[in-house]
Amino acid sequence: xxxxxxxxxxxxxDQTSFAYVSARDRWPVILTGAIDDLHRAIxxxxxxxxIADGKTIVEGLTTLKYELQHNRPLTPLTDDARQDVxxxxxxxxxxxxxxxxxxxxxxxxxxxxxxxxxxFALSAHWKSYDVFARQKLxxxxxxxxxxxxxxxxxxxxxxxxxSNVPSSKxxxxxxxxxxxxxxxxxxxxLWGNATDLSLLTALTYDxxxxxxxxxxxxxxxxxxxxxxLPAAYRTLKATQNTEPxxxxxxxxxxxxxxxxxxxDLILAGYLLAAGLAxxxxxxxxxxxxxxxxxxxxxxxxxxxxxxxPQALYAASSDKNKDHDGAPTxxxxxxxxxxxxxxxxWSRLHQEGQLTIRPNLFWTGPGSYWRLPSSAPNLAQDxxxxxxxIFKGDLNYRKLAGDAMWPTTVPFTxxxxxxxxxxxxxxxxxxxxxxxxxxxxxxGQDERLKSLEGGGGDTGARKxxxxxxxxxxxxxxxxx
Length: 479
What we know:
Layout lengths: L17 H26 L4 H22 L14 H11 L10 H17 L11 H10 L1 H18 L9 H21 L13 H6 L3 H7 L3 E4 L1 H14 L6 E5 L5 H15 L5 E5 L12 H12 L1 H6 L17 H19 L3 E3 L14 H4 L1 H8 L3 E5 H8 L11 H4 L10 E7 L12 H6 L20 E7 L3
Helix pairs in contact: 1-2, 2-4, 6-11, 6-14, 7-11, 12-14
């Protein structure tokens, strides 16, 4: 509150915003899914105490869903021994007595997941249970075609980068190829966000496949409204040239697990192999968050899945089965390529080039405008990085304060204390799934609204809700 932007935030009472749709339509569905998942887990238990404990959590989730759907006031979080409870309750007190349908969107959505986590934290047998883990794995399995395509490309790319075979191309041609490769790898990472589980409540397996793969990426290039990848590349390349033997770190503030974490690791491995970084630090969440966000356990789960990919896909959906109903086995080549990923990423992790660093700040109630003052140690740590990549829609909303900025406001201005002079270089990779968008040319918002389904003259920025459009924006806070 004290360090937030004075520009008003989006609120669930605004009928022209995605906040309105989220509170009334999306959140009850998400809570219902969590309740159903826990029912399934309880049914598989044979421990009476654990069953009773689980039923208490179900009651809490059911009460939360009732309060949401009946527009009850948000209540203070119960103390579950985590330090951020005081932050949430302080913000709630400052907001007065808001109800679910008349509250700042960012706070309410963070509060929703944080309150869900208290039910598990206060339990005796379910403290580490993730009600969304089943969905994360299912969506990764559904991404099989894109996973196999990228695994093959990754193995070939890493082997080429590490071969040290002299190239017959001129320095200019090599430089152009390196820039193009950087852009392509980042765009793969960008569009991996198309599998955000909290938004894809109605997509089929075939729909997910259409959002992934090389051909889809070519079509999507024209949908990147702002693309600052060249500036980010120049920064990393300049540091590589001036400090070829020095430590050069890149941080990735993660978004979703499953396929998106897979492409994040593709990008991380590429940056290391290309010499654009010597260390990658991944920042996951500490609690189940926005359905699909990465937890430390998701990293281990992904590596375990890649360690035995044949077993993973043997238990997959009907779409991965042949005409006899049996799972379609992976070919020997496909197993080899996925095993290469497992071995390469495991080695990078073991050698300290690929590390995981969670922080409670990432699941706090406020925007990243608060980061320098509320989490000074984290801010100082990020200043040690050459580039901090913020993935996905929520990270973008938090960077910009989830505020009702005019779309022409510069990205650097919308970052506030995280902008120029902060000492932190920011690169936002964001497919648009919420109203807050900045840094667009004059007239762009109006043009997109005029498209079919874009919002027209309703006042709603519907074009920014679907994930069809993206922005890639850079701010050199060290300049």
